[in-house]
User: Fold Membrane protein involved in the export of O-antigen and teichoic acid from Paraburkholderia steynii.
Amino acid sequence: MTLARIAHIAVSVQRNPTVRRIASSFASRVLGAVANLAFVVYLGRYLGAAQTGLYMIGLGAATLLSTIGRLGLEQIVIREGGPLVRDGQWRALRSIYRRTQRMSLCASIAIAALLLLVNDPLAHDVFHQESLRDVMPWFAASIIPLAFALLHVPFLQIIHRPEASIAILSLWIPLISLPLMLLVHPQTGVQGAQIYLAASVFNAALAYAQWRRFIAHKTRDIAERAVPHPPLLSAAAPLLIGNVGQMALLWVAVFAVGMSASPGAVGAYSIAQRVALTLSGFLVPPIDALVGPRIAVMRGVKTRDEIEEMVQRISSLLFVVAAGAFILILLFGPEILKLFGGEFGEGYGALVFLTFGQLVIVASGSVRPLLVVHGREKTIRNAMSGAAACCIVLCAVLLPLIGPVGAAIATSLSLAGEKIVEGVAARRRLGISVFPSVGFYALHLKNWLARNDGQRS
Assistant:
């Protein structure tokens, strides 16, 4: 690439607000991925496979239960709040914020209390790990700040703060946890859980501060007036079921391995999963942070073909990048796992199959924001809950036969099936295809080659 071409790209990024936000979001995501990778590496090295396994079981419970605590409201915020931002109805937007946070906090507190209540039988009778009793209370406490912080993500997205939303979603917790870990040198899962709780509280405070600063400025000189109260919980119910199914897809296998194998096996599988999740986690959230609100604004204004063109461009770009990352993991997976310690090398087989499932997720692009904006929450719910049920069944069949690799295969097949179902639903019900055809790739490859030939000549 010539210097002139690089300069041209830099000028384009600077002049185009959308491109600039995408670039900034990716920068936040890159930093978050680096911080998260460094955190997990040190976690594995300090705790070892067994204690890492206990930590991951607790983290999985907190992540899944905080999803329930958010009540499926995130996508409803984007759908209802996007037009309010477009029309400058800041009082109405603040009203939605207060209602959603109030409902989520009440639900999260109740869920955390319930987890504490069942902590002993969970550790003794389900996972058969007495040490888990000391780890789980700290993760139970983290459910509340985690749900509170993550419910700010859609609000930051619709007010055109994608960088801040990505930071809340994936940057601040590992970025704060890493120096705490280097300071404390944790030796047990309990100490790791305490670090996670502290980072979650800090993340929640940052999320609130950014929202508060924005909305206080916008509503300062606006006279109070009655605002509409759109239904939130009834619309969010299908998405809650779907979101729980989505989280279950990521953690069912971890829990299944934890119930049938040693904590060391859980640790090795969990680290493999964290590496694989980096693929979709690195690419999809920055795109969704921009595409979801963008589709909400385009709906009813742009044609179906224009929306499809945008979605397919995103899908094709993500697929090309993800395919390259998949090849690198195939080739260098064992070396990557050695970064965490020699005990984690047995997770390579699981890593390969989990990465394949993430490849399909990335290739589907922004199908979920597309369905949400068009009111297809039940389609998402059915796809996610069906995939979660399939994952449970496949884990029950494959895990006894081939161990943690079977859990990875079950997870990948279920994730791939979910995205294919959502893509087919978008095609049939909206007339929009999210999966580009071979001809689409061929046309854009031809155009790219032609542009490069023209620049060289």
